[in-house]
Amino acid sequence: MGLFTGVKKVGSRIVDVRVDRWMSIGVIKDSFEKTSSLISDMVVPAKAQRKESFQEALIRLGLTEQDLIQRKKEFFRLVVVYTIIGLTIVMYGIYMAVNQHFAAGLISICLSLFAFGQAFRFHFWLFQIQHRKLGCTVSEWLNSKVTGEESPEASAPSPKPYNQKTIDNQKTKQTNQIQDKTKKQSNID
After folding, report:
1. In CA terms, which of 49, 54, 153, 166 is 20 to 30 Å from 159?
2. By the 8 A CB rule, do 109 and 90 touch?
3. pLDDT value of position 48
4. What domain range includes position 69?
5. Is 132 contained in some domain?
6. Which positions ≥6 away from 33 have C-beta within 8 Å?
7. How far is Cα 165 from Cα 172, in angstroms, rounded to an integer?
C-alpha cells in the first residue's frame, strides 16, 4: 500500500487531477455572480430618491419655461438622430446578412438596438416633459396618455412658447402696474 500512496502523491504533483483547481471554478463563480448582478442592475430600475411633482422639480433645478422648450427641441432632435442611425445600421446589417456575412449582420443589429434604446430614452424624457409628469410608466408612454395621479399642470393647457414679443408685452404690463402703484401712492400722500 505504501507504494501506491507514494505514486499518488508524486502523480498529483505532476498532473493535478482536481478539476475544480485547473478549471478555476472559484473564478468562474465570481465572474457569474458579477455578471448576474450587472444584468440585474441594468434591468431593474432604480427607485426614485425623492418624491416630487414636475413643478417642484422645475423649482429645484431652476428651470424656466424657455429651458423646457429648449430641452423639448433638443430631445426631439436626438430622437430623430438616433432613429436615423438605428435604421441605417439595420439596413447595413441586412445587407451584410444577405451577402453571407452573418457575424457582421448580427453585430450591426446589436448596435442598432443600442441606437433605438437611446432614441427611446430621449423620447420618454420628451413625453414626460410634454405631459408635465415625472415617473411616467412605459405603458403610459406606449398608450400616449398619462394615467393615475396627475399634477394640475398636466391637465392645464401647455403654455405658449415665449418669443420676444410676448416677453416685451409682459415687461410693459409690469412697468404699467408699477407706474399705477406709484401714482396711487403719490395721490394718497
Report:
1. 49
2. yes
3. 67
4. 63-148
5. yes
6. none
7. 11
Across 146-171, b (16+ Cβ under 10 Å) vs e yields beeeebebeeeeeeeeeeeeeeeeee
Q: Is the pLDDT of residue 153 over 50?
A: no
114 lies in some domain: yes
pTM: 0.55
> Distance between CA atoms of 62 and 54, rounded to whole angstroms?
12
Query: Which alpha helices (H) appear in the chain, and where do they start and end?
Result: 2-14, 19-22, 25-43, 54-61, 65-98, 102-131, 138-143, 152-155, 164-188
Grid cell locating 114: 443600442
CB of 52 within 8 A of CB of 60? yes
Number of domains the chain contains: 1
**pLDDT value, residue 159:** 47
82 burial level (CB within 10 Å; 0-12, 13-18, 19+): buried
* Cell numbers 437611446: residue: 118
Position 158 scores a pLDDT of: 46
* pLDDT for residue 106 is more than 80: yes
Residue 129 domain flag:
yes
Cα dihedral: 27, 32, 34, 39 (round 10): 160
Q: Which residue has the cell 429648449?
A: 70
Which of 167, 159, 165, 157 has its CA nearest to residue 68?
159
Residue 133 has phi, psi (to 5 degrees) of -145, 130
Q: Is 76 inside a domain boundary?
A: yes
